[in-house]
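New to this. Explain these tokens.
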Amino acid sequence: TQMFIKNPKGSLYRFSGDGKYLAVIERTECNDYVALLNTRTWKLTSHFKLQTIDAAGFEWSPSNMELCIWDHMFEHRLYIYSLDGSCLFTHEIKKPISMGLQCVSWSPCGQYIALGTHTHFLYLINRTNRKVAGEMQIPEHVSGKVVQYYREDHNAVSGGSVAERLRCTPE
């Protein structure tokens, strides 16, 4: 079966984590759209317009039921869409940051979204209450001989506090 995708936007395409879908961001007449394809049949499952000015990237949620899409470097917004195109959540960073979002990552449970900026700031958004759960400036260089980082424990009981799910991992 052949499938042609019109006006794909650069390398903005990703398979869902379970491999059931391929999402492609398209650009037509100055508007961004998502084309969602079923990988078993290669038929178009849904096609919807985005609220973005100029989409810069996206990630699948851990449940493979939502897409987190962020806007161009001069816009400081991200959007979460369901697979039918409903916008479920919008977040805009209020602080002025230059060059916008650099990377976005979901927590394994899907409750948190980490946003990294080009100016070395990290924001943690709680998807449940739609608020910033934390923010910090990341130094360009890490000094010292011992570095500690935290990783979410995938085997921890779900629903526990963030502190219960995080454990320190010395390097």
In short: The longest helix spans residues 162-165.
